[in-house]
Amino acid sequence: MIIDLRSDTLTKPTEGMLQAMWAAEIGDDVFGEDPTVNTLEEKLAGMFGMEAGLFCPSGTMTNQIAIRLHTGLQTEVICHKYSHIYLYEGGGIMSNSHASVKLLDGKYGKISPQDILDSINPDDVHAAETTLISLENTMNKGGGSIYTLEEIKPIKSICDQHGLKLHLDGARLFNALVETNESPKDWGAMFDTISICLSKGLGCPVGSVLLGTKAEIKRARKVRKSFGGGMRQAGFLAAAAIYALEHHVDRLKEDHTRARELGKMLEGHALISEVFPVMTNIVIAKLSGISPTDMLQKLEEKGIKAVKFGKDQIRFVTHLDFNDEMLERFGERIKDID
Ligand SMILES: *Cc1c(COP(=O)(O)O)cnc(C)c1O
């Protein structure tokens, strides 16, 4: 049995999800005529109390569209140095939006209101104009760490005072919300735009949704077209997403429980010096006396897959296709590695 913990994007549609996809009513979404896509966009926007949504092929696209909406020539985005938008989107901030980036540090991938305040450029001929703050929740490279709503409020008020836009890369926002029990509507009230991935923990084959105001989403639709992201009978994919929102949100807690157990199994291992606090479905282990490549090789020999995550770290992600039996096997196999 191969235990694949490289990412929560690896899941395959369940039987129920496939049936929902087969049964989808479809149309041409570029004409705005796919009823299932329209339903998905309205449903997610409604959940977060936001005006409108836009279904896109990937979370990279929803993030990059949001950045395009909120920036322009000679502007600057502030984000954490480990942000997905900066590290893992092919340098898109520059190539898609021609914006400059200011990278902040902070424990477990989170940035503080004071550091943000100190990083806003002055209204000065020498400086790029700061227009956007982008946050990530949960924070992938921070080990699936969570921002609480209370932590967002002071950041939101800085944005209001300085006329800045606030974007959330909420690829795994539902993972955070099931842990904190905070309401999606309270989160929706904090941000100008939110990107949510359906193809991660929620288990869909494809898709992300960008949420925002009607006016912003209208512009976003045009940007999506220019990025080549206008899809036709996308209702098959939207049907998977609607199914996931109805059946796969609460169960994210199971992934978190298994991730915590998995973290415990790694603690104290001779080749691991530290396991980041496990808050959601991501487990990051710092290695000691072995390179990530060699450790991954040892794991692979035992039928376990993970990924390199920095120069001395590896990452495991739990997901819909990782069950208790696999967790138990994981525990047995990891003991055999030395
Ligand atoms: C996966 C992910 C995305 C989007 O990735 P795609 O593969 O383009 O869908 C964005 N942000 C974070 C934090 C992610 O983990």
Automatic annotation (TrEMBL):
UniProt GO molecular function: lyase activity
InterPro entries in the cross-refs: ArAA_b-elim_lyase/Thr_aldolase, Low_specificity_L-TA-like, PyrdxlP-dep_Trfase, PyrdxlP-dep_Trfase_major, PyrdxlP-dep_Trfase_small
Cofactor(s) listed: pyridoxal 5'-phosphate
Signal sequence, start to end: none
Protein name (Swiss-Prot/TrEMBL): Beta-eliminating lyase-related protein
Keyword terms, alphabetized: Lyase, Pyridoxal phosphate
CDD domains: TA_like
Organism whose genome encodes this protein: Belliella calami
Acyltransferase among keywords: no
Every Aromatic amino acid beta-eliminating lyase/threonine aldolase domain range: 4-286
Gene3D superfamilies: Aspartate Aminotransferase, domain 1, Type I PLP-dependent aspartate aminotransferase-like (Major domain)
Family: Belongs to the threonine aldolase family.
